[in-house]
Write a structure and sequence with these properties.
six-stranded parallel β-sheet; seven-stranded mixed β-sheet; about 550 residues; about 35% helix; 22 strands; alpha/beta
């Protein structure tokens, strides 16, 4: 045994393949742990103990039961107790027995593996290697309220959905909380099914953008007991309190969708979003192997987006109201992470980092006042980006900036409700370049409902123009109608025809639709041409 164990431990059998031999009265145990049957004949005392390994009898109960059966001079309790622990320890080493030795959790939070269309090596790709801060925020709120919680990032750890069984065997969670984007939803559903097959009592909860947009689909799958819509910190907290501590009624919790006693879908609406972000504790990064991620120093300093781009679902979770952490909260968090882990580079994962220009200048000024020797990157809106802001950001350590350009045709930009002009985008790239921001990334989308071959050509040419103005990287995606977006909700009106029902293929790089103007094959060809030209333009 690796460490001393308490008398209160309650061992339980992991196999029900056993019977009592009628002639000897002893127990024969079979195991299929290694996919082939093996057997073990227990002696009389071992058989007596085996029958009590139901998870209800503690080590103390078992030892006292043995002592009560002893005739004549009885051995010392401590000796019997040690023998019991040694015996069940041997059984655990053989995969026949387990017990809660402090590793079990109230809630296990899971990030599903990425779609099977990607190779396992995708975890090495910088864009797809960031700690799941959303889960970390959920965990920090749960821990603050006294619950035990663990996080399993199955993508970063290159795990398969079936690996959830070994995690559930080890951690024995009461609640399994799974986050999901649209392309990871099939894996999320499979994980929940496998967990239920292993332990029918585990409560499965799904959250994230896909679940928020399609809660009925998630519940009708039969894999999930609850759907958490919108921001989940306090919805999951109240659900955990109701299920684990038996306080409150889960059926009345705002932000939850579930089935009522008649099997009908019951929705309690979207919970009011947190207005004071500083009231939320820092994300529980210590529950992750943070060094394994490329974007180790990920930070979220604001939530919400007030814009209405018809292709975007970012407001589904965080809403249209722009809310920010205070500059003091953000920089204290960065300093704490830097002190603990030694990181000097940080990625802001805000949808609209520079929406509040005064806050940007305040943050940059305070970074310099605190003499913080850090570098960082962020996503910015070109329409709010100015030369003065570029210089302030560069002076405070900004090395990477990303702009969502989306189209190189002004009519298309207007139709997709981007609220940005081509001139503003050009000026933003020039400003960032003149401020000597090292990496300037511009992202584009083709396949908008209004796109034609001519407007796609405009987009590609505009990207090449931006590279001449200083953009160091150009990315190109295919319009993908995610649930919750305006284009998804109004496909008929927009002339979009879905060609693919497999959510795993909704990855921005596979053609899952066609429009009135661009059939599938032509869209694929234009995408390939654009990628080639963008790569050539930025290979310096």
């Amino acid at each position: 045994m690796d460490k001393p164990y308490s008398d209160s431990l309650c061992p339980f059998r992991l196999t029900e393949l056993w019977h009592e031999d009628k002639e000897s009265g002893t127990v024969v145990v079979f195991s299929d742990l290694n996919l082939s049957l093996s057997s073990q004949q227990l002696n009389e005392i071992g058989s007596f103990i085996w029958k009590l390994l139901d998870g209800k009898h503690s080590v103390r109960d078992i030892a006292l039961s043995i002592l009560s059966e002893c005739e004549g001079e009885k051995p010392e309790y401590q000796s019997v107790r040690d023998d019991v622990i040694a015996f069940v320890g041997q059984l655990r080493d053989k995969g026949l027995v387990q017990w809660d030795d402090g590793d079990s959790v109230d809630v296990l939070l899971v990030m599903p593996p990425f779609p099977s269309v990607y190779a396992s090596k995708s975890i090495k790709t910088p864009e797809y290697s960031a700690p799941p801060l959303g889960l970390c925020y959920l965990a920090s709120v749960l821990r603050l309220n006294g619950f035990t919680v663990s996080i399993l990032d199955m993508h970063q750890n290159a795990k398969l959905p079936e690996d959830i069984i070994s995690e559930c065997r080890k951690l024995r969670p009461k609640i399994l909380g799974i986050t999901s984007t649209t392309p990871t939803y099939p894996n999320a559903e499979l994980i929940a099914r496998l967990a239920k097959a292993f332990n029918s009592n585990v409560v499965t909860v799904i959250g994230g953008a896909h679940a928020t947009c399609l809660p009925d689909e998630c519940l009708k799958s039969g894999a999930f007991d609850y759907v958490c819509v919108g921001e989940g910190e306090y919805t999951l907290l109240e659900l955990t309190e109701a299920l684990v501590r038996k306080t409150g009624d889960a059926l009345t919790i705002p932000g939850l969708v579930t089935l009522d006693s008649n099997g009908d879908i019951q929705s309690n609406g979207v919970r009011e979003r947190v207005s004071d972000l500083d009231s939320i504790p820092w994300p529980a990064r210590d529950l992750l192997d943070l060094d394994s991620y490329y974007q180790k120093g990920s930070i979220i300093s604001s939530r919400g987006c007030p814009f209405n781009c018809n292709y975007c679902a970012c407001a589904v979770i965080s809403g249209r109201t722009y809310r920010t952490h205070s500059v003091n909260y953000v920089l204290n968090e960065i300093q704490a992470v830097s002190a603990k882990y030694g990181y000097k580079y940080f990625d802001f994962h805000d949808d609209c980092f520079n929406l509040d220009s005064q806050r940007v200048f305040e943050l940059c000024s305070e970074i310099k006042n605190r003499k913080m020797e850090i570098e960082w990157g962020c996503f910015c809106r070109a329409a709010q980006f100015t030369p003065t802001m570029a210089k302030a950001m560069a002076g405070a350590g900004c090395k990477v900036i990303q702009f969502g350009v989306e189209s190189g045709n002004q009519t298309v930009l207007t139709k997709i409700k981007k609220s940005t002009t081509l001139k503003q985008i050009e000026d933003a790239v020039i400003a960032a370049n003149e401020a000597k921001i090292k990496q300037i990334v511009c992202g584009f989308i083709i396949g908008h409902p209004q796109d034609t071959e001519d407007t796609v050509t405009d987009t590609i040419n505009f990207g090449l123009r931006l590279s001449e103005l200083g953009a160091t990287r150009l990315t190109l995606s295919l319009l993908t109608p995610y649930p919750g977006t305006e284009v998804f909700l109004n496909m008929k009106q927009y002339g979009i025809t879905l060609l693919e029902e497999d959510w795993e293929k909704y990855t921005f790089s596979r053609v899952v639709m066609e429009t009135r103007n661009l059939p599938k094959e032509r869209l694929r060809e234009l995408y390939s041409i654009g990628i080639g030209l963008f790569l050539k333009a930025t290979q310096k």
